Structures are given as structure tokens and as C-alpha cells.
């Protein structure tokens, strides 16, 4: 049976989009050879942490249809590509999954379909990569035979405040008609649609928003190191600063920066969109600062152990919360892995607790999972809070732990050593 919408790529962007579409009464099929079998069986992909198994069951009951039949992509009015585009080892983006999704769609693309790219991609990707693939594979012309647009993914995983409905959606089509067609679709999901001048502007919105986050986190991470050296309570500084009604937005430090939104420096953009000689130097510096935070956490941990007559070698260290964000299962880019790796290389005995991660491996070995949080904290020489999940009683934890390093400033004042 034909559907209104096909979502291609069912990770951290695709599944929430499909959930919002199904809730809005849009007949939705989903195509992702990597995840379709799990979804059909009611199992969530490992990298999707914002939905629960109950959410998926409701979606399936309301007509959500994961499919392995690519032919269904040619029977929809709107197709949205949400394939991941992670950073590669050289810090350039890997667009291979976006390319695969485009080729699968191109072979079935029919006239009058609206195609929207939501993957986090460098400026120029919609016109320089996606458009040629779709036109070559279909024999159709973008802007004439089918609509083509870009819309940056704006998702706050796990948020109880921000949803598809109340988060404005930015749209940039290759023609005004393409923009309007995409806006008509997103108008069914969002209370507000913002029209960009074109796809490059919409793609660059994603770059600006992501880099804004990383640069400001880097600033407070540097402030955290400075304030510790000065004996200043940074958390109190932030509390006071955020009362300013203009010119300031509060960010908070942490052990590193995780998540799917990766900072983009023009030095690493694909050649057609690169701007030689004009790097975003602040972005590169911010990434360097944020990449240093796991090492700083290790330094603080070793110092605390030493001050209490213990060495990191053979110390029992408990890591709490190994996901990249509170109350989510996703570990994408979480600093916990690097922190655990460095501690293990120093000879520490690592264990962890996380209600969302039943199994965890570091350096190819399983890390013991603590069954009883408070018993494990009482037994550990050092407990490091990396992610303050809502289920944690931080007051009780501070009482039980021999030594507690809070990297998120979440414990009561005076209850722990803060980053």
C-alpha cells in the first residue's frame, strides 16, 4: 500500500522523525537495511536512545512500517534522507551512507516526489552530491520533475521540553517551489517553518548551530580549569552570570563533548565547498580544548587519589553514566570510553554503572557492571560521575562514596569534588 512518507536512515534523526510523522497521522514507511529487521521485531537500534521500546510498539501499532523492499520508496509523496554522516579518522565527514541512501531512492524516484535531506552534511552537499546522484539514477531533473530541499536536523534527544512540534524547522530548496513543497510537509509536523534562501544557507545553519555549541562548551571547559587553579567556584560564577538578561547564555563544563552533532571546520570540508585560507580557527581551537577534557579528568582523578594516599595504579575506580547525555542510551562520542581507556592503561581497576547500558566494552574487554550502585561506590577508591542520570540519588551517592569526582556539577554544594 502506498505511503505518504518514506524515512531513509533510522538512527538518531530518522526514528524520531518517523515517530512525529506517525503521531501526526502520516502514513510512514521506513527503509534502512541495517535496522529494519530489529525494528520489525520491536527492537530499537543501538544508536537510538531517545525512543523507548514502548514508543516503537505504539508506532508499529499505528501503522509505522519498516520495510526491506526498496520499491516502496517509489510510492511516496515525500522522502526524507536521515542517514548518518559521522566524522572519519581524518576528521572529514563520511558521506557513504548518505550516498547509499540516495542511490537506493534514485532508482525508484518518481515525478512530483519531494526529496529532503536531513543528514548533518557540509554546505553544498545537497546540490553537489545528492542532486547528481538522484538525477543520474532516476533520469529526472531536480526542480523540474521532483522537488529537492535541505532541512537541518534539530533534535534535543531525551528533552521533555523540545519536540518536533515546538521546534521551528528551517527549509532551503533548490527552487522556491522546492522550498514551498518541503515547507508544506514540515508544516504538518512543526508549528513554525523558517524558509532559508536556499539549500546552502540551510546546510550552513547546521554548521553554525553545531559549532556554536562546541565553541561555548570549550570556553566554559577552559574556565573550569582556570577556576580550579584559582580556587574559584565556577558553578557559582555561572549561576550568577546567567541572571544577566542579555548577552549571555549559560553553558556548563564537562568531561568532554559527545553526541551526533560534530563540529565542522572548512579545512575538512569536501573539495568543492572548501574555502582555502579561511579556516574557522575558533572551531579548531574549541575542538582541541574539548578533546583535552578527558585527559584533564584523568589528571584530577590521579591528584585526588594521591591526596588521599592512593595511586591510580591498582585503584578501584567506578564510572557513573557512560552515555553522552543524561537519560539516554546512546554512547555516540561519549568521553567515558576515552577516560576508561586511560585509567585502564594506568593500571586502575575499572567498573561502571549505567541504567541504560547493560554491557560495555573498553579495549576489547568487557567492563564489570556494578549491580548495586551504593555498595560499588562505597567499595571504590574513587567514583567519577560522568553523566547525572535522573535515577541517581546524588545526595545519597555522596554519602556512600569514599571519594567522589563530579564532572557535571550535579551534586549538592560541598558533597563532592567538582571539575
Task: For the structure shown, list the relevant keywords.
419 residues, alpha/beta, 8-stranded mixed sheet, 5-stranded parallel sheet, 36% helix, 13% strand, elongated
List the helices and strands and how they pair.
Layout: E1 5-8, H1 14-23, E2 28-31, H2 36-40, H3 53-61, E3 65-67, E4 78-81, H4 96-106, E5 114-117, H5 125-138, E6 147-150, E7 169-173, H6 176-186, E8 193-195, H7 199-230, H8 234-241, H9 281-307, E9 316-320, H10 336-345, E10 349-353, E11 361-362, E12 365-366, H11 373-379, E13 382-385, H12 394-400, E14 404-406, E15 417-418
Parallel strand pairs: 1-2, 1-4, 2-3, 4-5, 5-6, 7-8, 9-10, 9-13, 13-14, 14-15
Antiparallel strand pairs: 6-7, 11-12
Helix pairs in contact: 4-5, 7-9, 9-10
Structure in words:
- Helix content is 36%, strand content 13%.
- The chain is an alpha/beta fold.
- The strands form three sheets. It has an eight-stranded mixed β-sheet, with helices on both faces. The chain has a five-stranded parallel β-sheet with strand order 10-9-13-14-15, sandwiched between helices. The chain has a two-stranded antiparallel sheet with strand order 11-12.
- Helix 10 (336-345) links the parallel strand 9 (316-320) and strand 10 (349-353).
Query: How is the largest sheet built, in terms of strand order?
Result: 3-2-1-4-5-6-7-8
Q: What fraction strand?
A: 5-15%
Output the number of helix runs. 12
Largest beta-sheet characterization: 8 strands, mixed
Report the uncertain regions.
Answer: none
Oligomerization state: single chain
Report helical residue fraction: 25-40%
Query: What Rg is obtained from the alpha carbons, in whole angstroms?
Result: 23 Å
Q: How would you state the average pLDDT, rounded?
A: 90
Number of strands: 15
| Helix-strand topology string | EHEHHEEHEHEEHEHHHEHEEEHEHEE
Give the distance, in angstroms, between the N- and C-terminal Cα atoms.
56 Å
What would you call the structural class? alpha/beta
- What would the principal axes of the Cα set say about the shape? elongated
Amino acid at each position: 500500500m502506498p505511503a505518504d512518507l518514506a524515512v531513509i536512515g533510522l538512527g538518531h534523526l530518522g526514528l524520531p522523525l518517523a515517530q512525529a510523522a506517525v503521531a501526526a497521522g502520516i502514513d510512514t514507511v521506513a527503509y534502512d537495511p541495517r535496522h529494519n529487521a530489529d525494528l520489525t521485531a520491536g527492537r530499537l537500534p543501538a544508536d537510538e536512545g531517545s525512543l523507548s521500546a514502548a514508543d516503537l510498539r505504539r508506532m508499529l501499532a499505528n501503522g509505522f512500517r519498516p520495510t526491506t523492499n526498496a520499491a516502496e520508496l517509489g510510492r511516496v509523496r515525500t522522502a526524507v534522507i536521515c542517514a548518518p554522516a559521522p566524522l572519519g579518522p581524518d576528521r572529514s565527514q563520511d558521506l557513504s551512507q548518505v550516498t547509499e541512501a540516495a542511490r537506493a531512492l534514485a532508482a525508484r524516484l518518481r515525478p512530483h516526489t519531494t526529496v529532503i535531506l536531513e543528514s548533518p552534511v557540509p554546505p553544498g552537499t545537497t546540490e553537489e552530491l545528492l542532486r547528481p546522484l538522484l538525477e543520474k539514477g532516476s533520469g529526472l531533473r531536480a526542480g523540474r520533475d521532483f522537488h529537492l530541499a535541505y532541512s537541518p536536523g534539530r533534535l534535543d534527544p531525551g528533552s521533555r521540553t523540545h519536540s518536533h512540534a515546538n521546534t521551528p524547522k528551517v527549509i532551503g530548496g533548490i527552487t522556491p517551489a522546492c522550498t514551498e513543497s518541503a515547507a508544506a510537509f514540515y508544516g504538518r509536523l512543526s508549528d513554525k517553518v523558517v524558509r532559508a534562501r536556499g539549500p546552502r544557507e540551510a546546510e550552513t545553519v547546521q554548521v553554525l548551530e553545531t559549532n556554536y555549541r562546541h565553541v561555548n562548551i570549550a570556553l566554559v571547559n577552559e574556565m573550569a580549569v582556570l577556576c580550579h587553579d584559582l580556587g574559584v567556584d565556577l558553578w557559582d560564577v555561572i549561576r550568577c552570570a546567567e541572571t544577566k538578561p542579555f548577552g549571555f547564555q549559560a553553558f556548563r563544563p564537562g568531561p568532554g563533548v559527545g553526541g551526533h552533532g560534530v563540529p565542522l571546520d572548512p579545512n575538512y570540508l569536501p573539495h568543492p565547498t572548501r574555502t582555502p585560507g579561511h579556516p574557522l580557527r575558533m572551531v579548531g581551537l574549541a575542538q582541541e580544548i574539548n578533546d583535552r577534557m578527558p585527559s584533564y579528568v584523568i589528571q584530577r582523578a590521579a591528584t585526588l587519589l594521591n591526596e588521599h594516599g592512593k595511586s591510580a595504579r591498582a585503584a578501584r575506580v567506578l564510572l557513573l553514566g557512560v552515555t553522552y547525555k543524561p537519560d539516554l542510551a546512546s554512547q555516540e562520542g561519549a568521553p567515558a570510553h576515552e577516560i576508561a581507556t586511560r585509567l585502564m592503561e594506568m593500571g586502575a581497576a575499572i567498573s561502571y554503572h549505567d541504567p541504560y547500558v547493560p554491557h560495555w566494552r573498553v579495549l576489547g574487554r568487557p567492563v564489570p557492571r556494578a549491580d548495586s550502585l551504593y555498595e560499588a561506590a562505597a567499595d571504590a577508591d574513587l567514583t567519577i560521575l560522568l553523566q547525572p542520570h535522573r535515577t541517581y540519588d546524588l545526595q545519597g551517592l555522596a554519602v556512600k562514596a569514599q571519594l567522589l569526582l563530579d564532572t557535571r556539577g550535579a551534586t549538592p554544594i560541598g558533597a563532592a569534588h567538582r571539575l
